[in-house]
Amino acid sequence: MTKQNFIQGTMILVVAGLVTRALGTIYRIVLSRFIGAEAIGLYQMAFPTMIMLITIVTAGLPIAVSKLVAEAEASRDQLKVKKVLWLALFLVGSIAIITSILFYFSIPFISKYLLTDERVSLSLYAIVPIIPIISISSVLRGYYQGKQNMLPSATSTIIETIFRMISGIALSFYFLPYGPEYASAGAMIGMVIGEIAGNIILLIYYHFNRSKSNKNYQFNYFSNFFDRGIRKQLSRIAVPVTTSQIIGSIAYFIEPGVVAHSLAIAGISTAMATAQYGQLAGMALLVTTFPTVVTYSLSVSLVPAVSEAAAKNNSFLIYKRLHQALKFAFIIGFPAATLMFIMADPIAILLFDNTQVGHLIKIIAPFAIFLYIQRPLAATLQGLDHAKESMKNSIIGAISKTIAIVILASRPELGIDGVAIALNLGMTLVTILHFNSIIRIIGYSLQLKTLSLIIFSTTIVGYLSYYLLHHSFLDLHLGFRIIVILLFSSIAYFYLLLFFKIIKKQDIERIPWIGAKIANILPIK
User: Could you report the per-residue pLDDT of 442-499, keeping only the tens digit for each?
Assistant: First the structure.
């Protein structure tokens, strides 16, 4: 099984994340045009239920599996690797089956009394087979990530997205004449087909890449399921991660209601409050959270990398991995936040034809950098076996954000701006708490010279993009203007990073597939 280094693994996941995000965006646009707002509304009503169920079923096991497999690999304990995998599959499979049965019989109640639209029941029934499929694939992805081989996860994710797109569009369009509830269910069945395809890819990788060393010992499947030591290790990591995710899901679930009540106190009508929250959550955050595709990939690669280093008691390697991750996040995050702030209005007009969205983007963008580095910090805590710290910080952030929404959004002079400010407060607080925990645990400190050079390079590019936006390419269509400005700004930023030696030629060479070719044409040694 091919193992990539930290940078290579991250880049593979970044490429896969960008491809799947682009395909997913196209899919949502096409699906919306094909089946209409009502069917999409039913689909969106069912979707959070699926996310909550998957969060409960997987129980943080993918991260736990990734960490324990990485530790076992570091000590060359292939028996433990297999024990971790099969025990996790047994646990998650059992939970998934029980949850699926309970959910199946509760669908009439959920659709009628909780979601208040019985038509959504068809989409909810389509969710039932997704639960065990995703639970198995999530554990397998954690297994491969623990072995620091990101290709199976990346490949399966892309295949899953492609199959989901094709089957989802085809089935929803086929069922549309029977009513929007059938079209919505068709899209959900497409997700089932996509998950099956992705799972098959993961199983194929597992079958063909099993190392011979795994066959050189006796392995008792029955006794493995009752290995108390492995169970305790899995639960020690999985329980805090799951608790944190469930708290986040609950906060996400109640947030619209809290916002609506707070805006009502501010004198804003229900219809207006719904529209404003849609602009914030469905449009502005869609833009400002896009760079998290990169930071999510960083966090996935960072958990096994830090776990392996910790298992070897290699403090230098832990520092190095964390520094690489934060440096990468800053390199992407600072210019992304700056360009989103400067180009907020044209981006909002181009994508949503709504200038109010641009105003909200301007509020969030300056603080978005805290969101971009939050995941790598949380991943480091999990890799260091301090998942409880990450959980505690996330709970404090969720509670603080909710309280801030009530206080700020209920003020007439702020309204929806108060919600955006509260979101900034929540993500800034969690990030600061994560960083404080890491400082306390390992004594890490930022490399201020590198950070200063990144900020300086970002400032230059910010001025360049501002000048181009207001003084150049004015005759071009808005979409082409934005693309050209982003292209010029990206090239300038890239050469500034090379000039200040923030990134080096050898760093470029490590990029999978195309790195060596790009490095060969660079004028800097």
Answer: 988 888 999 999 999 999 999 999 999 999 888 888 989 999 999 999 999 999 998 9
Kindly give, in sequence order, each residue whose CB lies less than 8 Å from that of residue 273, ignoring residues fewer than 6 positions away: 259, 260, 263, 264, 416
Q: How far apart are CA 21 and CA 293, in angstroms?
A: 8
Which of 469, 502, 511, 470 is CA-nearest to residue 488?
Answer: 469
Sequence-distant (6+) residues with CB within 8 A of 462 are 335, 338, 339, 342
414 touches 357 (CB < 8 A) = no
* DSSP symbols for 461-495: HHHHHHHHHHHSSTTS-HHHHHHHHHHHHHHHHHH
- What is the sign of the dihedral through the CA atoms of 488, 489, 491 and 492? positive
Q: What is d(CA 333, CA 326) in angstroms, rounded to the nearest whole number?
A: 10
Query: Residue 293: enclosing H or E segment and its boundaries?
Result: helix 292-311
Phi and psi angles of residue 498, each rounded to the nearest 5 degrees, phi first: -70, -40
The pLDDT tens digits of the residues spanning 365-399 come to 999 999 999 999 999 999 998 988 998 999 999 99
Q: What is the rounded distance in angstroms from the CA atom of residue 391 to the CA atom of residue 359?
A: 32
The DSSP letter of residue 133 is: H
Residues in the chain: 525
Angle at 73 between CA 67 and CA 76, to 5 degrees: 150
In angstroms, the CA 364 to CA 290 distance is: 13
Sole residue written with tokens 């400005």: 485
Q: Which amino acid makes up residue 445?
A: S
SS (H, E, C) 324-363: HHHHHHHHHHHHHHHHHHHCHHHHHHHHHCCHHHHHHHHH
Cα distances (angstroms) measured from residue 505 to each of 10, 123, 447, 458: 18, 51, 20, 20
